Amino acid sequence: MSAAPQVAPPTAGHVPLGAVLGHHADRHPHRTAVVCGEDGVDYAELDRRSTAVAELLVERGAAPGSTVVIGLPNGVDFFVATFATWKAGAVPLPLSSALPAPERDALIALASPSVVVGLPATDRTAVTADELAARARTGPTGATPLPARTGEQPWKVIGSGGSTGRPKLIVAGRPARTDPEQEQYTIRPGDVVLAPGPLYHQGPFIFTTAGLFLGNTVITQPSFDAAGTLELVERHGVTWAYLVPTMTHRIWRLPAPVREAARLDSLRLLVSTGAPWAGWLKRAWLEWLGPDRVLEMYGGTEEQGGLSITGRESLAHPGAVGHAHDGVRVVRPDGGPAAAGEVGELVFRRRETAGHRYVGAEASDAAWRGYGDLAHVDADGYVHLADRRTDLIVSGGVNVYPAEVESALEAHPAVVGAVVVGLPDDDLGQRVHAVVQVETPGAVDPEELRDHVRTLIAGPKAPRTIELVTESLRDDAGKVRRSAIRDARMPAPDGAR
């Protein structure tokens, strides 16, 4: 059995995050720090701009330990604002500018921020994207004293819970300090890091900032582009890349000549997390890159616990997300251990160093906690995900896990993506309904899709109804608002018009 690295969060080092850019700018000022689209900046300039914006944030009320909401799109200014927040002694909360206003406003209300950057606000705490860019160009004046850089505040806050309809904030327990020479999340000093997903999401945020903490060059995109991602690997000599399964699926669906022309020799490691891989898709990538260059991670925003699996292990144990160890269990509803092959809740022993706290939700003090996922352990001790507890569909007494059906649907060449939900059914209790994204209307017939699914999974799990759409179902981070998709298709209550 090969040993997948247990990818724990880095421990807090001795350099405050507000000082880490200066640390690297002193050593290699002209090394490229960030590239996004046609825009780029070196360490000296990123340090200069973020100091200027830190002065602006302090002028607007940012104080040590306060929260600064950052609602900027992917780009250099996102990193300017983030490092400016750490220089002001504050805690960054990245948020999507595309969030529905009620959810966005609920998260901002929970955060009680000192400053809101790039999003609508009604008082003096607002900083527009244009104001930020103008101050960054002007540079620091030295007229606004910045707080001492101790790094004692939490290093980040991440918004969560939109898929459940109950927004909450997760405040990191780790302080805002780092070791600028120590490997983080398998990223090594000297790597060229590519993470093309939306920076307000946990994965892209922690991996891109980790790359900058180490003084590396970080590459991202204004928005994910499949062919463009392959081109970036070659142009910049990317050595470490983070792609969620949605991205790997879109890349694999590129015309074969485009994929075959891609030069990926520089790539040391492709890391994927955020959602389960479809089995057929992961096999395809393992054959393309080779099993030694692929690592799958499983975890959550709370960084409570996690699993990882190498490409070689994946070949021997298809569908697994890692090998169970002393800190991992699959348990029955009564808390007892599940037998091999029995589906239960995947939980992890509470990591004392995680120390996160919630705002807007109650944190559990249980010794074992999970992320709400169902799983089973095989006879060799490998963990296989089933689905989230809240997503499980019981149709005619059969447990149907949406991820399994979605994987089968997405194996069809005409399918771009799929989301499966359970809808009320007088006969079955719930019927399996699939919303399937295709490139063009009429690209495939629903009955053809049903027949295709039945060749891959048991017939009772196949969708009873299939809806074809052309709009994207998942964002660039691979996330889907399943509850919103389900609610939009629920029958109206009796008497409603």
CATH architecture of the largest domain: 3-Layer(aba) Sandwich
| CATH fold-level topology of the largest domain | Rossmann fold
Strand tally is 27
Dominant shape: globular
* Largest sheet data: 8 strands, mixed
- CATH homolog superfamily of the largest domain: ANL, N-terminal domain
Which short descriptors sum up this protein?
five-stranded antiparallel beta sheet; 497 residues; Rossmann fold; globular; 2 domains; GMP Synthetase, Chain A, domain 3; alpha/beta; 14 helices; 27 strands
What is the topology?
Elements: E1 15-16, H1 17-27, E2 32-36, E3 39-42, H2 43-59, E4 67-70, H3 76-87, E5 91-94, H4 101-111, E6 115-117, E7 126-127, H5 129-138, E8 157-160, E9 168-171, E10 177-178, E11 192-194, H6 202-213, E12 217-220, H7 226-236, E13 240-242, H8 245-252, H9 256-261, E14 269-272, H10 279-289, E15 294-298, E16 307-310, H11 311-316, E17 320-323, E18 328-331, E19 344-349, E20 357-359, E21 368-377, E22 382-388, E23 393-395, E24 398-400, H12 402-410, E25 415-425, E26 429-438, H13 446-454, E27 465-469, H14 482-488
Parallel strand pairs: 2-12, 4-5, 4-6, 6-7, 11-12, 11-13, 13-14, 14-15, 26-27
Antiparallel strand pairs: 1-10, 2-3, 8-9, 9-20, 15-16, 17-22, 18-19, 19-21, 21-22, 23-24, 25-26
Helix pairs in contact: 1-2, 1-3, 2-3, 2-5, 7-8
